[in-house]
Amino acid sequence: MDVGFEKERFETFKLKSSVAKRFRKFCKRFSKSQSMTLLAMLDFFEINEVSPNERLGETVSSLKHQMQKRFNAVIAIIRDIEKSQTKPTTAMLQSLFEEASKESEEEFDFGTPELISENEELTYYRDNYYKTQEQFHTVHKHFEEVMDKVKYVKGNFGNSYFKLETTKEEYENLKQKLDDVHNHNSTTNR
Fold first, then answer.
1. Residue pLDDT, tens place only, 131-162
2. Hey, which end of the chain has fewer CB within 10 Å, N or C?
3. Is the pLDDT confidence value at 29 over 70?
């Protein structure tokens, strides 16, 4: 019995015998009664808004076969890219890294360090401290000399300003002294 339609009565349709036989075979293939098969067919056409006169195009099996061909083509393209681009690039990068690692493995000889005693080290740092203090005092003295030669000038028409009152020779001498003091601070080996 058809579920949900037990109380309904049967109607008859006038069908050609060849169509009726074909319809009965179709129903047996899906293991449904003729009423339920016809109801399912009507639902399909109404839900999908398809007319029985329209052709849906290719069948599912032909679409499946076509998709399989496309998948195989995509796989072939990916394998070709892997062979022609990815693997050679990887090999090139790997060889570059191997060369770089060989270069970095080279040993550098920095020589043997000279060992000095604690007293020598203290003497070295003490001497450098005194030299730095002496340079500081020299620069400070030169700065005071420059500041003594700076005069404040009140502008008549503009802003006020400071003026350095010195000759060109004195300025060049001062510049030379500052350069000498700066150049004494060079880096030297112990």
1. 999 988 888 888 888 888 888 888 778 788 88
2. N
3. yes
Measuring CA to CA, how many Å separate 139 from each of 5, 25, 70, 131, 185?
Answer: 114, 115, 84, 12, 13
In whole angstroms, what is the distance from residue 149 CA to residue 178 CA?
A: 17
Q: Which residues pair with 109 in a beta bridge?
A: none
Separation CA 144–CA 132 (nearest Å): 18
- Angle subtended by helix axes 17-30 and 34-47, to nearest 10: 90
pTM: 0.33
**How many angstroms separate the Cα of 128 from the Cα of each of 103, 182, 183, 187, 188?**
40, 15, 15, 11, 11
